[in-house]
Write a sequence for this structure.
């Protein structure tokens, strides 16, 4: 990405990393810019102190595009390729997908999960941030960042298909802790997922996406 209309003359803008979520991209900007509060990054990118911080189905995508330009893609592309709409759109009709994108492009997604039926699904609305420790190490060495991979965030995915290891999960964001913060994978904060013995590793591997 490059500065747009002089809005970010003193800020470096970053490009997407492979299979990166929108939340991860903004979190990397927050880390790079060194802001002491998440609200400062939100105000700069979204024009409001708490906009855009949903890690799964974020709002204010059109404001993001308007403020940084379309080098990162338009709101529709970002929603479909860098948020959990990438997963849920397989179960939706074309009009429903358009409605979701319209909500995410705008300022309010407060009832979006209810409209999608996520609250009553087997996975409910809980979308914990997840990361593969092997991916984190490789990404840090290759790109200089450990970041959130979209396919690791899919509901029901608890194994990294590339490395055949269980994912670690964050207790933040999905539980309301640091709800409005920008976060990147941190090995000291991520925890193993307790297994109840009803799912074998091979069964979990079958649910893991195999391509970016």
């Amino acid at each position: 990405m490059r500065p747009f209309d002089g809005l970010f003359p003193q800020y470096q803008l970053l490009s997407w990393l492979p299979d990166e979520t929108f939340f991860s991209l903004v979190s990397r900007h927050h880390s790079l810019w060194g802001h002491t509060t998440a609200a400062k990054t939100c105000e700069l990118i979204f024009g409001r102190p708490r906009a855009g911080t949903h890690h799964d189905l974020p709002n204010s995508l059109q404001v993001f595009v308007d403020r940084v330009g379309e080098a990162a893609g338009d709101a529709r592309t970002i929603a479909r390729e860098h948020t959990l709409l990438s997963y849920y759109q397989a179960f939706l009709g074309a009009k429903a997908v358009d409605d979701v994108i319209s909500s995410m492009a705008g300022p309010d997604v407060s009832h979006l999960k209810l409209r999608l039926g996520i609250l009553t699904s087997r996975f409910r609305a809980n979308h914990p941030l997840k990361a593969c420790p092997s991916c984190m190490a490789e990404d840090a060495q290759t790109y200089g960042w450990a970041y959130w991979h979209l396919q690791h965030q899919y509901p029901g995915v608890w194994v990294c298909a590339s490395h055949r290891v269980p994912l670690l999960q964050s207790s933040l964001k999905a539980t309301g802790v640091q709800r409005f913060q920008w976060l990147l994978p941190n090995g000291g904060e991520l925890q193993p997922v307790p297994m109840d013995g009803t799912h074998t590793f091979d069964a979990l591997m079958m649910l893991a996406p195999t391509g970016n």
